[in-house]
């Protein structure tokens, strides 16, 4: 059952580097409240001493940088090279993140939300949303964007393979937005979605 009566909550998902954040920014420009689960993960890794302690207990002191914070590069290296370790971390973080974003939506006076959830379909969260959008782009465009972020070939492949294929996400979503074109085309697609909402 949809848990947010009298609110419209759109789930934004899609593959890595497909343009989810840009889509969310466009919704924000139209007056929607945006929640990024990636940002909530970063907050937990920086502020939640229980989470930090469990990560260090599992993988040791090298997980902390010189400032005592979780070293996200080191963490990514571990979880993208082991599905077992990635599953463990997701089991730790995902319930906390879900609790935070759902609470944000429930307590807010806003009525229209987009929630960016990269693993929306992987975690079968469809029922929490009024509608779902998958942001889709070609694998070539994904690889180019990830190279521009400084990732090497092996890191790129590991991250892409850690998620459900973008084609499958697009098949499961209520609506697909193509994230490989220019911003005007993106805005047209969002306006088209809103007319069907």
Structure description:
- This protein is of the alpha/beta class.
- It has two domains: 6-32 and 113-197, 3-Layer(aba) Sandwich (Rossmann fold); 45-109, 3-Layer(aba) Sandwich (Rossmann fold).
- Helices cover 53% and strands 13% of the residues.
- α2 (37-47) packs across α5.
- The longest helix is centred in the middle third of the chain and has 25 residues, at 83-107.
- It starts with 7 loop residues before the first strand and ends with a helix.
Could you give the topology of this structure?
Elements: E1 8-14, H1 20-29, E2 33-36, H2 37-47, H3 49-59, H4 72-79, H5 83-107, E3 112-116, E4 131-136, H6 139-148, H7 153-161, H8 166-172, E5 175-178, H9 183-196
Parallel strand pairs: 1-3, 1-4, 2-3, 4-5
Helix pairs in contact: 2-5
Brief digest:
The chain is α/β, with parallel strands linked by helices and 197 residues long.
């Amino acid at each position: 059952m949809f848990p947010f009566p009298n609110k419209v909550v759109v789930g934004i998902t899609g593959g890595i580097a497909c343009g989810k954040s840009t889509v969310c920014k466009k919704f924000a420009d139209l007056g929607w409240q945006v929640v990024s689960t990636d940002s909530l993960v970063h907050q937990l890794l920086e502020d939640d001493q229980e989470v930090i302690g469990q990560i260090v207990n599992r993988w040791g002191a090298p997980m902390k940088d010189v400032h005592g914070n979780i070293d996200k590069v080191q963490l990514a290296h571990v979880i993208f090279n082991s599905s077992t370790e990635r599953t463990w971390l997701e089991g730790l973080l995902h319930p906390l993140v879900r609790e935070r974003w759902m609470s944000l939506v429930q307590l807010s006076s806003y009525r229209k939300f987009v929630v960016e959830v990269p693993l929306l379909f992987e975690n079968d969260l469809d029922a929490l949303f009024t509608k779902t959008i998958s942001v889709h782009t070609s694998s070539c465009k994904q690889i180019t964007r990830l190279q521009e972020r400084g990732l090497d070939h092996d890191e790129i492949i590991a991250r892409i393979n850690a998620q459900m294929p973008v084609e499958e996400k697009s098949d499961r979503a209520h609506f697909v937005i193509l994230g490989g074109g220019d911003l005007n085309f993106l805005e047209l697609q969002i306006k088209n979605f809103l007319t069907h909402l």
